[in-house]
User: Fold diphosphomevalonate decarboxylase from Suttonella indologenes.
Amino acid sequence: MTKEEYFNRFLPPHLQAKDSGQAYAPANIALSKYWGKRDAALNLPMNGSLSISLGALGTHTTVIAIDAPQDMMVLNGKNISPDSAFYRKTQAFIRLFRRGQTPSLLIESSNTIPTAAGLASSASGFAALTLALADLWQLDLDSRILSSFARIGSGSAARSLWHGFVKWQKGEAADGSDSYAMPITSDWQDLHIGLLEIDTAEKSVSSRDGMNHTVATSPLYAPWAACAEADLQTIEEAIANRDFHLLAQTAESNAFAMHASMMAARPALIYLQAESFRQIARIHALRAQGLPLYFTADAGPNLKLLYLAKDEAEVLAAFPHMVAINPFA
Ligand code: DP6
Assistant:
């Protein structure tokens, strides 16, 4: 099935447009990662994943019908050129929703994620855009369908429709209709996240290219996928039992397993930098001294620390530049 066919299955033949639509979606950090697709066009993952959303750090998006020859896009107050990759990717995604002739749109997005956090905004971006378009065109669709739409924009966006812990089940159906994310009920105020910037320069290999390369060439890919499914279950149990050590230790091990699968790709794919490893050694030294401090890392050099609220002052003393977050605030 193509993505056009998938959208056509759920959208009405004619859109009932309002003048504008708007939405907010939080960024998210995977505790058990998505790394590898079984279907590239539909963005279907090889394994399920589980994330925690970052509350007020995310993307606000407004879409307004305008009288203009083509769509206009403004990101963080700056006009985006129609020649840019961002414009083309966004427009290709919006085209999936459009039923024939719809008026041009002004798409205005702003990220509340500090640039210094070194955090990707594509997950919250595609989630906020999906919700804003659903608002504009008054789509009366189940949130599971909207999550699967956001997934087609960017896999991790499927999880950014909700706050708190979110699980994206890999699904079994060939059309991807059962590959969506749903929230896990929890109000774990003690669990805090720290964003530790190592390097915020744009990475040279995107997550998309990186995971495709890992699936195609890494002898450690199959063991990674099996490990990811087991870690997902362990983290769900840890959430149910509020077991911080089990959750954080599993998330850290899961990140190392994902990075190991990339490093074993041919040629190797290495996102962590020397400075990442220097800070990981500091985290491990603090932990050896008794501080319950763990980390995870995505397809980049930056670290996301996991710790308990009671230890925030101590963690900030060790990492003064860290951005501290209570995801359940
Ligand atoms: C390492 O969702 O950015 O952050 O589906 O190709 O757009 P595409 O990839 P993307 O990959 C995220 C990878 C990750 C792990 C995760 O968020 O689960």
Q: What stands out?
A: The chain has a mean pLDDT of 96. Residues 3-184 form a domain with the Ribosomal Protein S5; domain 2 fold (CATH 3.30.230.10).
